[in-house]
Design goal:
Layout: E1 4-6, E2 12-15, E3 36-41, E4 54-59, E5 70-71, E6 92-94, H1 106-109, E7 111-115, E8 125-132, E9 139-143, E10 147-154, E11 157-161, E12 164-168, E13 172-176, E14 182-185, E15 191-198, E16 223-225, E17 236-242, E18 245-251, E19 258-263, E20 268-271, E21 292-297, E22 304-311, E23 314-316, E24 333-340, E25 355-358, H2 368-376, E26 382-384, E27 388-394, E28 399-400, H3 402-407
Parallel strand pairs: 9-17
Antiparallel strand pairs: 1-16, 2-19, 3-4, 4-19, 5-18, 6-25, 7-8, 7-28, 8-15, 10-13, 10-15, 11-12, 11-14, 13-20, 17-18, 21-22, 22-27, 23-26, 24-25, 24-27
Bound molecules: 2-(3,6-dihydroxyphenyl)acetic acid and fe (ii) ion.
Length: 425
């Protein structure tokens, strides 16, 4: 059990040992108990105040004390780079990861499916799947390339980070900031889900415009863990993702040794059941941006580097309206996953734990069966129950990895076959 502090990107102060946190200054000459002060910057020092994100950490040893990193040879499917072949404009879909035959921890199970932009551009996102059955016992992972969003689909996660412990179950999400070391334990023994890397500007809550001051994801429902640390002088491997490759080095102690911290850059969790879904009460299906939980803006106003969007349980009441997602072509690129239930645009083939890709300008929308059912439906109020899908919409087209190209469903196009031709008068 962990305690959490409510609020999104709040300036928090937390100490696991009373007296560890300096008062009134960040870097005293001698921090309490011989701790080391370290600033962790998530934005440039000079970022405007409303964008500026950083925390001060008080730790048992400085992060700087470590040997050189060497290439890490595990996790063969994590960050292999994407295919160099010309990118086909095809729609792609994947089944959930197969059941495991060998013990594998979260890190070694990470399987990169889609990525766009080079992490060195400080733009773009990558979509990974994981399916693990072993705790990360004597090692930690640190992502220098991105903030990391966990979207579990099966099995709880106990994510131990430098800045506190986070427990999440499917239906909840968690974010660990860029550069924060973490260890993933599996309280249920197995876990499967999605991880989204965001290389770009930090995820934030979207502006609400005419919706007003409340709604969608409310800031108070984000929870940041209190300080927690382990005092463990045992060999600990540190695997780092840096510029798209994995690197490793050994420490003689656990680096999860931050005894106190303060600032507005920290991990958090959020229960998607708290998402206040807003939709039509008259007619027409609003653009799916109405379901944006988090956005990472690009430099072009309104054109997101990444939007994290959910399709939660909700009432459908639109009159004289085709209610599921309509047919469309989008200048933005859409990666979708399913946490549970059935997605209202896909009658079959899009399973929980699966993934789909509709890149820039790909014609997509309801499959034939969903189109037929929704076109003939009696339009009484109807509740979509139990379904939880999500989308990572990005202005940068996604490139699938070789593994993704080799494992996609064989005939996804067939879900849009044989639509009857319109009959003109
Ligand atoms: O299924 C999709 O492709 C995502 C989507 C959802 C929606 O409600 C409207 C449009 C849209 O693209
Ligand atoms: Fe779409």
């Amino acid at each position: 059990m962990t305690d959490y502090l409510p609020g999104f990107a709040n300036h928090v102060s937390t100490e696991a040992v009373p007296g560890a946190l300096p008062i009134g200054r960040n870097s005293p000459q001698k921090p309490a108990f011989g701790l080391y002060a370290e600033q962790l910057s998530g934005t440039a020092f000079t970022a405007p105040r409303h964008e500026n994100r950083r925390s001060w950490l008080y730790r048992m040893r400085p992060t700087a004390e470590h040997p050189p990193y060497a290439r890490y040879r595990g996790a063969a499917r994590f960050a292999p780079g994407t295919s160099d072949e010309p990118l086909a404009p095809n729609r792609l879909r994947w089944d959930p990861m197969p059941d495991l035959s060998e013990p594998v921890d979260w890190l070694d199970s990470m399987t990169t499916m889609l990525a766009n932009r080079d992490p060195a551009d400080l733009e773009g996102v990558a979509v990974h799947l994981y399916s693990a059955n072993k705790d990360m016992a004597d090692r930690v992972f640190v992502d220098a390339d991105a903030e990391l969003l966990f979207v579990p689909q099966h099995g709880r996660l106990d994510i131990r980070t430098e800045l506190g412990r986070i427990d999440i179950a499917p239906g909840q999400i968690a974010l660990v900031p860029r550069g924060v070391k973490l260890r993933v334990l599996l309280p249920d023994g197995t876990a499967r889900g999605y991880c989204i890397e965001n290389h770009g500007s930090l995820f934030r809550l979207p502006d609400l415009g005419p919706i007003g001051a409340n709604g969608l994801a409310n800031p108070r429902d984000f929870e940041t863990p209190v300080a927690w640390f382990e005092d463990r002088d045992e060999p600990t491997e540190v695997v780092q993702k840096f510029m798209g490759s994995l690197w490793t080095m050994m420490l003689d102690h656990s680096p999860l040794d931050v005894v106190a911290w303060h600032g507005n850059l920290g991990p958090w969790r959020y229960d998607l059941a708290r998402f206040n879904a807003v939709g039509t009460v008259s007619f027409d299906h609003p653009d799916p941006s109405i379901f944006t939980v988090l956005t990472s803006p690009s430099d072009v106003p309104g054109r997101a580097n990444a939007d994290f969007v959910v399709f939660p349980p909700r009432w459908m009441v639109a009159e004289d309206t085709f209610r599921p997602p309509w047919f469309h072509r989008n200048v933005m690129s859409e990666a979708m996953g399913l946490i549970g239930g059935a997605y209202d645009a896909k009658a079959e083939g899009f399973a929980p734990g699966g993934l789909s890709l509709h890149n820039l300008m790909a014609g997509h929308g309801p499959d034939h069966a969903s189109w037929l059912a929704a076109s003939e439906a009696d339009l009484k109020p109807h509740k979509i129950e139990g379904a939880l899908a999500f989308m990572v919409e990005s202005c940068w087209p996604y490139r699938p990895t070789e593994h993704a190209l080799a494992t996609s469903q064989l005939d996804y196009d067939a879900v849009w076959a044989d639509f009857p031709k319109a009959r003109l008068p």
